[in-house]
């Protein structure tokens, strides 16, 4: 299995490898990812990845505490992307040990994926000189013209949203990310639902997580059924990604989300589960409508 997705992303990552000889944060990030990959192949745990990850995070925080020079933008963004991969891959992945069923839910594997969003304000003015700009520009161009709203704009074309999702997430013509906690995630997710797997890029898939707001994360921790359904849909899409660091986590967490929603949702929720359930192999139980309905958690 590959590591970095599309060929253009692999080229950008490869172009940064020589810089690891001088930049400590990049060197330890690459070593940690390599060690995690070795564990995924052998199935034997060791502490090499953890050691390098701790060194990487310490050096990376130091790097981000000062202005970033144009010459280091690619290295910083590449480190962030690789750290996201490490966070997503680490751990034992089974539906039974999912955060959804844990006494102390741990969502670091997911919250780490938003790291790029927090870095962008500090490097946005330098993106024109970055190789990563080509990656994001290509994805934005492919979306623009295919859908009614580009994925890098905060406008959701309601005509692209299936009626059942529009109703379930209470979308109105004047809805926005200000008054609807699910809006930003739907905005990035909906265009991907109808694309063939080979037409989706990893960058586009990760854009969905970059749209998760603090309010949305709060809803996930509250196990809000609507938020969990969106997470299940995204994980269902990630199940189609043939990357060593993504496959096991995506399938186990998607399966866990489907199980939780099946157990705690009503028939409306179960009707919407077919998309993620099919991709992770979960079989939806046929049961009578439960009493009550999906709670109207303030969004």
What does this structure look like?
There is one protein chain. With 299 residues, this protein is an all-alpha fold. Helices cover 56% and strands 0% of the residues. The chain has 15 helices and no strands. The chain has helices at 7-16, 24-42, 48-64, 73-89, 108-111, 115-123, 132-143, 163-168, 183-193, 202-210, 214-221, 225-238, 247-264, 267-272, 274-280. Mean pLDDT is 84; it is low at 141-153.
What labels describe this entry?
299 residues; single chain
How are the SSEs ordered, and which strands pair?
Layout: H1 7-16, H2 24-42, H3 48-64, H4 73-89, H5 108-111, H6 115-123, H7 132-143, H8 163-168, H9 183-193, H10 202-210, H11 214-221, H12 225-238, H13 247-264, H14 267-272, H15 274-280
Detail the poorly predicted runs.
141-153
Task: Report mean pLDDT, rounded to a whole number.
Answer: 84
Summarize the helix and strand pattern as letters: HHHHHHHHHHHHHHH
Alpha-carbon Rg, integer: 19 Å
Measure the end-to-end span: 39 Å
Give the beta-strand count.
0
| Biggest sheet character | none
Strand content: under 5%
The number of helical elements comes to: 15
The structural class is mainly alpha
Give the overall form.
globular
Helical content class? 55-70%
